[in-house]
Automatic annotation (TrEMBL):
GO terms for cellular component: ATP-binding cassette (ABC) transporter complex. Keywords: Amino-acid transport, Cell membrane, Membrane, Transmembrane, Transmembrane helix, Transport. It comes from the Bacteria. It is found in: Cell inner membrane; Cell membrane. Signal peptide: none annotated. Residues 22-210 form the ABC transmembrane type-1 domain. SUPFAM superfamilies: MetI-like (SSF161098). This is Amino acid ABC transporter permease.
Length: 222
């Protein structure tokens, strides 16, 4: 193994690029978490439609994107679409691909939480003349989101970690920069160990924030 001095020297030299890559990672993870969250709510709403065609199509969407490996979807969009004269930059491919994938998972989490609700509330609201959109916005969604915080938090963590694969479609994020550092001096263990520690730190921050949210949303015991 090479000396730590050599590794530290190369690390400092490439620090601006590494920090830029880290910003790209955080930016991508934040964007896909937000877009996947809101699209997931919309997809979940469609699963409750009274129209069987819409419900079946929505469930097919969820099954398709949960079943398809994310890397295959990204490769299909980035390397496959150009054969049909559709060319998208790596960031756009990452955002679209991740959003479609994350939304499917989030919708599935929300649907699971929905199945655990007390449906007497919905029946009572219907009897009082509430519209389906009002029931969803005022009764269903708030409770479903509260019960889904742990699952949604795990998804955000997954988004952060999974973002490391986008270097395969030429998007220069944090992991890509750390690979470049490793290839500079061939001290792969040190570079990847540092990479793992940074991801662990970021995940820990997300977990702490999520726990705070859970405490704020928790229903006080009688």
């Amino acid at each position: 193994m090479g000396s730590w001095g050599t590794f530290e020297r190369d690390l400092l030299e490439q620090m601006p690029l590494i920090l830029a890559g880290l910003v790209n990672t955080l930016q991508l993870a934040a964007i896909i978490s937000v877009t996947g969250f809101f699209l997931g709510i919309f997809v979940f709403y469609l699963t409750l439609s009274k129209n069987s065609l819409i419900r079946n199509a929505t469930n097919a969407y969820i099954s398709f994107f949960i079943g398809m490996p994310l890397i295959v979807l990204l490769f299909l969009m980035y390397y496959g679409l150009p054969q049909w004269d559709v060319r998208l930059n790596p960031f756009t491919v990452a955002v679209i691909g991740f959003t479609l994938n994350v939304a499917a998972y989030n919708a599935a989490y929300l649907k699971t939480a929905f199945n655990g609700l007390d449906f007497s509330q919905i029946e009572a609201a219907t009897a009082q003349g509430f519209k389906s959109s009002q029931i969803f916005r005022l009764i269903t969604l708030p409770q479903v989101l509260r019960n889904s915080v742990p699952a949604l938090t795990n998804q955000v963590i997954g988004n952060l970690k999974d973002s490391s694969i986008v270097f395969l479609i030429q998007y220069t994020e944090f992991f890509a920069r750390m690979q470049q550092l490793a290839s500079t001096n061939f001290q792969f263990f040190k570079a990847y160990l540092l990479t793992a520690l940074v991801y662990l730190l970021l995940v820990s921050v997300i977990v702490l924030v999520a726990r705070n949210i859970e405490k704020r949303l928790a229903i006080p015991s009688a």
